[in-house]
Structure of Nudix hydrolase domain-containing protein:
Amino acid sequence: MDVPEELPVAGTVVLLRTGAHGMEVLLMRRPERGSFGGAWVFPGGKVEDIDRMPDSSEADDARRAGIRETFEEVGLVVSDLVALSRWVPPPEAPRRIRTWFFVARAAGDDVHAAADEVVEHVWITPAAALDQHAAGAWTMFPPTWMTLHDLTTFGDVSAVLAAAGRHRSFATRVDGTAFVWEGLRLETRELPWRLRAE
Protein backbone atom coordinates (compact mmCIF):
# COMPACT_ATOMS: atom_id res chain seq x y z
CA MET A 1 0.00 0.00 0.00
CA ASP A 2 1.29 3.46 -0.91
CA VAL A 3 1.53 5.37 2.37
CA PRO A 4 2.29 9.07 1.66
CA GLU A 5 5.12 10.71 3.56
CA GLU A 6 4.24 13.42 6.04
CA LEU A 7 4.85 16.41 3.80
CA PRO A 8 3.07 19.70 3.19
CA VAL A 9 0.56 19.36 0.36
CA ALA A 10 -0.34 21.68 -2.51
CA GLY A 11 -2.89 21.80 -5.31
CA THR A 12 -2.10 22.94 -8.87
CA VAL A 13 -4.69 23.62 -11.58
CA VAL A 14 -4.06 22.98 -15.26
CA LEU A 15 -6.63 25.18 -16.98
CA LEU A 16 -7.45 24.37 -20.59
CA ARG A 17 -9.41 26.14 -23.31
CA THR A 18 -9.86 25.91 -27.06
CA GLY A 19 -7.96 28.71 -28.79
CA ALA A 20 -7.36 29.82 -32.34
CA HIS A 21 -4.51 27.31 -32.75
CA GLY A 22 -6.03 24.42 -30.82
CA MET A 23 -5.94 23.51 -27.15
CA GLU A 24 -4.32 26.13 -24.93
CA VAL A 25 -3.21 26.08 -21.31
CA LEU A 26 -2.86 28.97 -18.88
CA LEU A 27 0.69 29.52 -17.69
CA MET A 28 2.02 32.27 -15.46
CA ARG A 29 5.49 33.43 -14.50
CA ARG A 30 6.30 33.73 -10.83
CA PRO A 31 8.24 36.69 -9.37
CA GLU A 32 11.95 36.09 -8.89
CA ARG A 33 11.46 35.73 -5.14
CA GLY A 34 9.92 32.77 -3.32
CA SER A 35 9.01 29.31 -4.56
CA PHE A 36 9.70 28.64 -8.24
CA GLY A 37 11.18 32.13 -8.60
CA GLY A 38 11.07 33.30 -12.22
CA ALA A 39 9.60 30.02 -13.46
CA TRP A 40 6.55 29.45 -15.62
CA VAL A 41 3.97 27.44 -13.69
CA PHE A 42 0.27 26.62 -13.48
CA PRO A 43 -1.84 28.42 -10.84
CA GLY A 44 -1.89 26.79 -7.41
CA GLY A 45 -0.47 26.72 -3.94
CA LYS A 46 -0.21 25.04 -0.55
CA VAL A 47 -3.13 23.60 1.37
CA GLU A 48 -4.08 25.98 4.18
CA ASP A 49 -6.33 25.40 7.19
CA ILE A 50 -9.28 26.87 5.28
CA ASP A 51 -8.94 24.10 2.68
CA ARG A 52 -9.12 21.23 5.17
CA MET A 53 -12.36 19.54 6.13
CA PRO A 54 -13.00 16.75 8.65
CA ASP A 55 -12.60 13.26 7.18
CA SER A 56 -11.57 14.75 3.84
CA SER A 57 -8.96 13.06 1.66
CA GLU A 58 -5.62 14.67 0.85
CA ALA A 59 -6.69 14.95 -2.78
CA ASP A 60 -9.89 16.80 -1.86
CA ASP A 61 -7.98 19.21 0.40
CA ALA A 62 -5.54 19.84 -2.46
CA ARG A 63 -8.45 20.33 -4.87
CA ARG A 64 -9.95 23.02 -2.63
CA ALA A 65 -6.53 24.69 -2.32
CA GLY A 66 -6.17 24.68 -6.11
CA ILE A 67 -9.58 26.29 -6.57
CA ARG A 68 -8.84 28.96 -3.95
CA GLU A 69 -5.34 29.72 -5.20
CA THR A 70 -6.46 29.94 -8.83
CA PHE A 71 -8.99 32.60 -7.91
CA GLU A 72 -6.48 34.47 -5.74
CA GLU A 73 -3.72 34.38 -8.36
CA VAL A 74 -5.53 34.82 -11.68
CA GLY A 75 -9.11 35.73 -10.73
CA LEU A 76 -10.71 32.70 -12.39
CA VAL A 77 -13.41 30.61 -10.74
CA VAL A 78 -12.87 26.92 -11.47
CA SER A 79 -14.84 23.79 -10.70
CA ASP A 80 -15.05 20.16 -11.79
CA LEU A 81 -11.35 19.60 -11.22
CA VAL A 82 -10.18 16.13 -12.23
CA ALA A 83 -7.06 14.61 -10.63
CA LEU A 84 -4.26 14.36 -13.17
CA SER A 85 -1.12 13.50 -11.20
CA ARG A 86 0.57 13.55 -7.81
CA TRP A 87 4.19 14.63 -7.53
CA VAL A 88 6.49 13.64 -4.68
CA PRO A 89 9.76 15.61 -4.60
CA PRO A 90 13.12 13.86 -4.20
CA PRO A 91 14.62 13.57 -0.70
CA GLU A 92 17.39 16.06 -1.53
CA ALA A 93 14.98 18.84 -2.56
CA PRO A 94 15.52 21.91 -0.33
CA ARG A 95 11.77 22.41 0.14
CA ARG A 96 9.59 19.33 -0.14
CA ILE A 97 5.89 19.69 -0.93
CA ARG A 98 3.74 16.89 -2.31
CA THR A 99 1.67 18.42 -5.10
CA TRP A 100 -1.52 17.30 -6.74
CA PHE A 101 -2.16 18.43 -10.31
CA PHE A 102 -5.77 18.79 -11.43
CA VAL A 103 -7.14 19.56 -14.87
CA ALA A 104 -10.24 21.60 -15.73
CA ARG A 105 -11.87 23.31 -18.65
CA ALA A 106 -11.68 27.08 -18.19
CA ALA A 107 -15.14 28.60 -17.76
CA GLY A 108 -13.71 31.96 -18.87
CA ASP A 109 -10.43 33.46 -19.94
CA ASP A 110 -10.62 36.97 -18.47
CA VAL A 111 -7.52 36.72 -16.28
CA HIS A 112 -7.03 39.21 -13.45
CA ALA A 113 -3.52 38.43 -12.25
CA ALA A 114 -2.44 39.28 -8.70
CA ALA A 115 0.53 41.62 -9.06
CA ASP A 116 2.41 40.11 -6.10
CA GLU A 117 1.99 36.54 -7.40
CA VAL A 118 2.15 36.81 -11.19
CA VAL A 119 4.68 38.73 -13.31
CA GLU A 120 3.03 37.76 -16.60
CA HIS A 121 0.60 35.18 -17.93
CA VAL A 122 -0.35 33.68 -21.26
CA TRP A 123 -2.75 31.24 -22.89
CA ILE A 124 -0.53 29.07 -25.08
CA THR A 125 -0.51 25.66 -26.71
CA PRO A 126 1.51 23.05 -24.78
CA ALA A 127 3.85 22.58 -27.76
CA ALA A 128 4.55 26.31 -28.04
CA ALA A 129 5.28 26.51 -24.29
CA LEU A 130 7.77 23.66 -24.60
CA ASP A 131 9.38 25.46 -27.54
CA GLN A 132 9.88 28.54 -25.34
CA HIS A 133 11.60 26.36 -22.75
CA ALA A 134 13.71 24.53 -25.34
CA ALA A 135 14.93 27.87 -26.69
CA GLY A 136 16.02 28.94 -23.20
CA ALA A 137 13.46 31.74 -23.03
CA TRP A 138 11.41 30.21 -20.20
CA THR A 139 12.39 28.51 -16.96
CA MET A 140 10.33 25.45 -15.99
CA PHE A 141 10.49 22.74 -13.37
CA PRO A 142 10.12 19.06 -14.31
CA PRO A 143 6.45 18.59 -13.21
CA THR A 144 5.37 21.52 -15.42
CA TRP A 145 7.47 20.29 -18.35
CA MET A 146 6.20 16.72 -18.02
CA THR A 147 2.57 17.85 -17.81
CA LEU A 148 2.93 19.99 -20.93
CA HIS A 149 4.69 17.13 -22.71
CA ASP A 150 1.80 14.79 -21.88
CA LEU A 151 -0.76 17.37 -23.05
CA THR A 152 0.84 17.47 -26.51
CA THR A 153 -0.43 13.93 -27.07
CA PHE A 154 -4.08 15.03 -26.93
CA GLY A 155 -6.06 16.64 -29.72
CA ASP A 156 -8.44 18.74 -27.66
CA VAL A 157 -9.71 19.61 -24.19
CA SER A 158 -12.43 16.95 -24.20
CA ALA A 159 -9.86 14.24 -24.90
CA VAL A 160 -7.74 15.35 -21.93
CA LEU A 161 -10.72 15.37 -19.57
CA ALA A 162 -11.90 11.98 -20.82
CA ALA A 163 -8.47 10.45 -20.12
CA ALA A 164 -7.99 12.07 -16.70
CA GLY A 165 -9.44 10.78 -13.46
CA ARG A 166 -7.09 7.95 -12.55
CA HIS A 167 -4.17 10.06 -11.44
CA ARG A 168 -0.60 8.97 -11.94
CA SER A 169 1.86 9.22 -9.07
CA PHE A 170 5.39 10.50 -9.76
CA ALA A 171 7.89 9.73 -6.98
CA THR A 172 10.91 11.72 -8.11
CA ARG A 173 14.48 10.46 -7.94
CA VAL A 174 17.50 12.50 -9.01
CA ASP A 175 20.33 10.84 -10.93
CA GLY A 176 22.97 13.43 -11.76
CA THR A 177 21.19 15.98 -13.95
CA ALA A 178 18.32 13.61 -14.76
CA PHE A 179 14.95 13.29 -13.05
CA VAL A 180 13.76 9.72 -12.85
CA TRP A 181 10.31 8.23 -12.29
CA GLU A 182 9.11 4.68 -12.73
CA GLY A 183 9.77 3.87 -16.37
CA LEU A 184 10.80 7.42 -17.33
CA ARG A 185 13.97 9.48 -17.35
CA LEU A 186 14.08 13.21 -18.08
CA GLU A 187 17.54 14.39 -19.14
CA THR A 188 18.02 18.05 -18.16
CA ARG A 189 21.77 18.56 -18.65
CA GLU A 190 21.15 20.73 -21.74
CA LEU A 191 18.31 22.16 -23.76
CA PRO A 192 16.10 20.87 -25.10
CA TRP A 193 15.30 18.42 -22.33
CA ARG A 194 14.93 14.82 -23.48
CA LEU A 195 12.48 12.25 -22.13
CA ARG A 196 13.17 8.57 -22.61
CA ALA A 197 12.09 5.24 -21.21
CA GLU A 198 14.09 4.18 -18.14
